[in-house]
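Tokens for chain A. Residues wanted.
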């Protein structure tokens, strides 16, 4: 395999504006070595985009990095700026929140960091052994990388006593396509398992954690790397070896770390199944003790619960759902010491962007007060996102109410239906060959499942809430009418494929069989269209003022693509700035768009406004301003298709009526009446 020449590689450096330590502080407390993180997400830090052209240049850069700096290996939309939190974005529109929406992988080449931590109870690998183990999985002979040790390695006191050795090591691979970082790291993790370097650790809550020689959570463009030296107190000093460069050229990760073959996938599944069996009894004991202890905390907040009910709430949290009575621990001075999920859901505006201890394990990484964050608004349901164990998302409520509030409800089905298996590698049909041995046939290359059954308030339009993961690891949810399961199979498969689910060609019918076989007791109310449903207002991606009893999902009777047009982008402050110099006609159109939902509440009949003038007088521009209230305000001639909120008149009357129904209780904005057939207007 040829070696790609090195090119300009971009990454980001964050600097504490007052010269204080950005990364870690290491000290001695009560005779023990302690370390704390100072970055707190980098809020207020300046960031700049830096460029290197070879591995040695990057190694030299890291060796000169002061304690006031950190790095990450994605880049922002602009080359320099100041970091703020997502919660404070409206107050600081000129600043940038450090998240996936604002940071991305560079186009072309980039840096993939491999993070190795020595086991707490054993001897870690030497530099040579680690490099041999990692590079042994890579099917390319020549490429460049940088090796270094973590910021907590090789700490000595004033008397020369060594407190830590090589606690952690880093390998920075220079890869041809930076956007392939996550897939490549996941693949390396799986190949390390196949080579005997995998294991399951048991978390303090009793969950099984898949581990290898690399941390798979670091492949995020905004992920901070404490690459600079730490601040050492109490006479401590660090004497870690310098970062060193090795090899030349770029690694073609897509070729050098190919996806597992079906045989390799089967071998990995068998290895992991055996590994789970070996630790399951110990994990069960840990879970039992943890549920009892955590359940007592929940009962303190709600004495009406039995201990069994409280422990069931904790068990549900382990499956990624935090029920109404689950107790959370906010961080910060101006918040209560404890709060329930129900309180978050009752006042989402106040809690959006608030930081918490890890929901299941509040003692996890006590040095990081921003271990988890509440995300109450967005395309997905309200959730808590945690940095623990490679990243966890906990849904809040999700129609799984507390036992005493909603008897008969239960968590959604987690396991695959009989005859199928599902893991992060996708969905497989499982059959036995003539010798009685299991044979797997791949259906999808990413996981997909059914979370709940939905139906409208009249007991019709039954459907299912399908959840899947795309090739970038992004999660999707969509309520789908059940009648599609009885079509020829291609319509539903095309819908899911358009949403990023990678389906193996020819397996569309098997995918339908897999989804149709799911059993779940979770129920949701289906809304046939946007707009008012009793006291709730339904949009494709969320429901405003949702009822306590059931979650409401948007589920049109047919396949509507309105969700592509009704989207959220940017911040309210940015939008206000964009319209601050709007013309009176634009303000009128914006006001009309804002008033559409109110018409129903005050009992006013529907109506419309017709703007007319000669060409190029700004008619489309003011319509774009009105459309920006609810979604994509791009000129439909530029955006086109389903992604534009503005519709076109070049349709039949029946087609326009169908579109109008899709925009129920919302403004319908149609441009270019000259394209319509005069006979259609009567």
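Reply:
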């Amino acid at each position: 395999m040829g070696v790609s020449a090195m090119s300009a590689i971009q990454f980001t450096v964050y600097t504490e504006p007052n010269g204080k330590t950005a990364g870690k502080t290491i000290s001695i407390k009560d005779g023990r070595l302690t370390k704390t993180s100072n970055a707190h997400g980098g809020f207020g830090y300046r960031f700049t985009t830096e460029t290197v052209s070879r591995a040695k240049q990057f190694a030299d850069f890291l060796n000169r990095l002061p304690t006031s700096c950190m790095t990450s290996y994605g880049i922002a939309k602009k080359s320099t700026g100041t970091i703020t939190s997502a919660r404070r974005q409206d107050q600081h529109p000129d600043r940038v929140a450090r998240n996936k929406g604002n940071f991305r992988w560079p186009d072309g080449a980039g840096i993939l960091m491999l993070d190795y931590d020595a086991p707490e109870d054993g001897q870690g690998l030497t530099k040579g052994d680690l490099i041999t183990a990692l590079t042994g999985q890579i099917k390319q002979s020549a490429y460049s990388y940088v090796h270094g040790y973590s910021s907590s390695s090789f700490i000595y006191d004033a008397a020369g006593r060594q407190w830590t050795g090589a606690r952690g090591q880093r390998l920075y691979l220079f890869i041809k396509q930076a956007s392939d970082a996550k897939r490549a790291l996941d693949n390396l993790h799986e190949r390390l398992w196949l080579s005997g370097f995998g294991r399951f650790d048991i978390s303090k809550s009793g969950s099984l954690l898949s581990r290898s020689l690399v941390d798979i959570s670091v492949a995020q463009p905004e992920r901070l790397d404490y690459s600079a030296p730490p601040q050492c107190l109490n006479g401590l000093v660090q004497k870690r070896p310098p970062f060193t460069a090795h090899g030349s050229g770029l690694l073609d990760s897509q070729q050098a770390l190919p996806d597992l073959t079906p045989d390799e996938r089967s071998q990995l599944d068998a290895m992991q199944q055996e590994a789970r069996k070996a630790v399951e009894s110990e994990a069960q004991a840990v879970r039992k003790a943890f549920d009892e202890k955590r359940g007592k905390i929940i009962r303190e907040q709600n004495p009406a619960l039995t201990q069994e009910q409280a422990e069931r709430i904790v068990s549900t949290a382990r499956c990624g759902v935090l029920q109404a009575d689950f107790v959370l621990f906010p961080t910060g001075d101006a918040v209560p010491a404890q709060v329930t999920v129900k309180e978050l859901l009752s006042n989402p505006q106040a809690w959006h962007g608030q930081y918490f201890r890890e929901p299941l394990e509040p003692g996890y990484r006590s040095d990081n007060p921003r271990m988890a964050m509440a995300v109450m608004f967005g395309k997905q349901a309200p959730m808590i996102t945690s940095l623990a164990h490679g990243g966890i998302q906990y849904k809040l409520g999700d129609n799984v109410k507390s036992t005493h509030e909603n008897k008969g409800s239960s968590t959604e089905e987690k396991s695959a239906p009989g005859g199928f298996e599902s893991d992060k590698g996708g969905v497989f049909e499982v059959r036995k060959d003539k010798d009685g041995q299991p044979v797997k046939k791949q259906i999808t290359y990413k996981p997909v499942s059914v979370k709940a059954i939905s139906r409208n308030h009249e007991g019709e339009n039954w459907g299912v809430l399908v959840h899947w993961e795309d090739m970038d690891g992004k999660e999707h949810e969509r309520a789908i009418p059940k009648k599609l399961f009885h079509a020829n199979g291609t319509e539903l498969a095309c819908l899911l494929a358009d949403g990023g689910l990678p389906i193996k060609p020819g397996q569309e019918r098997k995918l339908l069989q897999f989804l149709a076989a799911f059993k779940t007791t979770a129920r949701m109310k289906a809304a046939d269209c946007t707009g008012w449903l009793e006291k709730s207002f339904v949009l494709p991606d969320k429901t405003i003022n949702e009822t306590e009893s059931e979650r409401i999902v948007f589920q049109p009777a047919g396949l509507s693509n309105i969700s592509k047009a009704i989207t959220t982008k940017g911040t309210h402050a940015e939008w206000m700035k964009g319209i601050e110099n709007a013309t009176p006609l634009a303000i009128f159109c914006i006001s009309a768009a804002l008033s559409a939902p109110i018409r129903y509440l005050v009992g006013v009949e529907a109506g419309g406004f017709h703007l007319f003038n000669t060409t190029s007088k700004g008619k489309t521009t003011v319509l774009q301003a009105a459309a920006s209230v609810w979604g994509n305000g791009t000129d439909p001639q530029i955006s086109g298709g389903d992604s534009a909120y503005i519709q076109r008149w070049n349709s039949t009357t029946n087609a326009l009526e169908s579109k109008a129904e899709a925009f129920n209780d919302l403004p319908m904005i149609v441009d270019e009446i000259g394209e319509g057939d005069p006979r259609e207007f009567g």
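The first strand starts at residue 9 and ends at 15. The CA atoms of residues 24 and 665 lie 53 Å apart.
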